[in-house]
């Protein structure tokens, strides 16, 4: 699955795929929220959730874009 296909899915589907196929890259807890970064295929997904209820608050996907000066991180969706 590429990032465009991933972005066309619902938030619930994105979350499920991330939890099933993602590789945990980073984790942070801040102000009562969890921010967890996963690598899913060739892109990255961050899931933000409430630390008390575990309710998913946001799903963001990131891809690497090549330009003349090199690679840069690009936020693809919220």
Radius of gyration: 13 Å
The side-by-side strand order for the widest beta sheet comes to 1-2-3-4-5
**What helical percentage do the residues reach?**
10-25%
CATH class: Alpha Beta
Which CATH architecture would you pick? Roll
Strand content: over 45%
What does this structure look like?
It is a single chain. The chain has 78 residues and is α+β, with helices and mostly antiparallel strands. The chain has a single domain (3-77), classed as Roll (Nuclear Transport Factor 2, Chain: A). 21% of the residues lie in helices and 56% in strands. The protein contains 2 helices and 5 strands; from the N terminus they run H-H-E-E-E-E-E. The protein has a 5-stranded antiparallel beta sheet with strand order 1-2-3-4-5. The radius of gyration is 13 Å and the shape is globular. It starts with a helix and ends with a strand.
How are the secondary structure elements laid out?
Blueprint: H1 3-7, H2 11-21, E1 23-30, E2 33-40, E3 43-50, E4 56-67, E5 70-77
Antiparallel strand pairs: 1-2, 2-3, 3-4, 4-5
Name some characteristics of this structure.
2 helices; alpha+beta; 56% strand; 5-stranded antiparallel β-sheet; 21% helix
Provide a concise account of the structure shown.
The chain is built from two helices and five strands; from the N terminus they run H-H-E-E-E-E-E.
């Amino acid at each position: 699955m590429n990032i465009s296909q991933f972005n066309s899915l619902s938030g619930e589907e994105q979350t499920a795929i991330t939890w099933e196929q993602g590789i945990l890259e980073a984790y942070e807890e801040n102000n009562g929220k969890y921010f967890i970064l996963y690598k899913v295929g060739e892109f990255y997904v961050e899931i933000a959730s409430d630390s008390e209820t575990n309710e998913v608050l946001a799903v963001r996907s990131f891809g690497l874009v090549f330009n003349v000066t090199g690679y840069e991180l690009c936020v693809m969706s919220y």
